[in-house]
Amino acid sequence: MEKHYLTPEGKAQLEEKLNYYKTVRRPEVVKRIGIAREFGDLSENSEYDAAKDEQAQVEAEIAEMENILLHAEVIDKKKLNKDVVSVGCKVTLFDEEFDEEVEYRISGSSESDPRNGIISNVSPVGKAVIGHSKGETITVQTPGGKTNYKIVRIEV
Predict the structure, then answer these.
(1) Residue 135 — very low, low, confident or very high, per pLDDT cuts 50/70/90?
(2) CA–CA dist 41, 70 (Å, integer)
(3) Which of 3, 20, 36, 137 is the most interior residue, by most CB within 10 Å?
């Protein structure tokens, strides 16, 4: 089973979203299905088909959230080692190609938000830096080609 790394805040947000889906979204869809049934012949009822499709989507999302929570490993920042990059760390890298520093928070895949500097431990850069220390230079194979990064700083 794949581990899903979550911050305490990320776990709380996911639990809140799951509760919303179970207590609000699911009943809304069931109600729409009931209303669509009243339109008559189900074989030619596009409202019914759309509501059933939405129900399948909601149930799939509920199952995914439950699976993530079931296999979640909550990151305890107090236990993180600031000498080595790991999930939960903030890392500053020097991008040799663009001659600039970039900062990333390494998270689990369910909390990643690359536009805001939060990358997954399974992303090319995240995977490459994990386990490395300050001062090391690593080569990352990205969709755009190979890039060299030097680890400048590791924070927890």
Answers:
(1) very high
(2) 41
(3) 36
CB atoms within 10 A of CB 90: 16
Picking from 100, 137, 142, the residue whose alpha carbon sits closest to that of residue 125 is: 142
Q: How far apart are CA 24 and CA 154, in angstroms?
A: 41
Mean predicted confidence (pLDDT) in 6-25:
95
Q: What is the per-residue pLDDT for 1? A: 63
Domains and CATH numbers, the chain: 4-74 (1.10.287.180), 77-155 (3.10.50.30)
Contacts of 72 (CB under 8 A, 6+ apart): 3, 4, 5, 6, 11
Whole-model pTM over 0.90: no
- pLDDT tens-digit series, residues 139-152: 998 888 899 999 99
Distance of CA 25 to the CA centre of its chain: 21
Measured CA to CA, the distance from residue 130 to residue 85 in angstroms comes to: 5
